[in-house]
TrEMBL record:
This is DUF402 domain-containing protein. Residues 120-221 form the DUF402 domain. Pfam families: DUF402. The lineage of its organism: Bacteria, Bacillati, Actinomycetota, Actinomycetes, Propionibacteriales. One of its GO terms (molecular function) is hydrolase activity. Residues 1-25 are annotated as: Disordered. Residues 1-10 have a biased composition (Basic and acidic residues). It comes from the Bacteria. Keywords: Hydrolase.
Amino acid sequence: MSEPDPDVHVSESGGTMQRLSGAASPRPVDLEVLSPLQVAEGAGPWCPAGAGPFLAVGDVVQWRYATRCDPMRVVRDDERGLVAWLADDTELLSTAPGDGVALRDKPLAERFLGDRVPALGTWRGGGILRIAPTDRPWSVWVFREDDGSLAGHYVNLELPHRRHGDETNTRDLILDLWLEPSGVLWLKDADELEAVVEAGRYLPEQAAEVRAIGEWARAELVEGRDWPLDDEWTAWRPPAAWTTPPLPDTPLVAEARRTTLP
């Protein structure tokens, strides 16, 4: 039996992780190729993030990935970007396969086939800080260990945020990076990005731009140690008085409440 590859493993969430080495190979990214992927529950009007009006510290912001909704509290909101806190046990609006089988329980070749339906979920595993830099196709999630020490930075590749009222809207782009405190960098879900193309949900040229965003993030954010990878956010803690915000009352939330099993 061959030895397991130390540069490949499966994360706790079921994603395939590949250790990255060497320097990034960035190139210009054409975000217009990805614009057809932008989806929202509401009609807007949508404005680019970073232009204001801005939300105040402690306000609730609905952080949306397409029609998914994560209610969060604002830590900072200004020209530089949005920083928000997702508390443990927050009720979330997501989507799930219509056949009732959990997404990661499906074979990879079937994972992105079939319909999705609105579903309710709960954020588990401790609260996290999310930072969405203005005009960048990624956000940075700060994870902590149970003892409060830094577990790592999750770089979620996503479309640049756009804003309307208390909503910030983006679209998850499947591929992600995980940066350990030691500096070891992992690429997550490259196999799922290929499966999305095979399923016809992404065009090959869209997947190519997503991969290019990953290299951009490696070069600028990780290798360049660009904001927000600094001590300001690794040391931040939420105020004790903050309560967990509820989901908004929207048609998709109402549908999810009717159909999600207890």
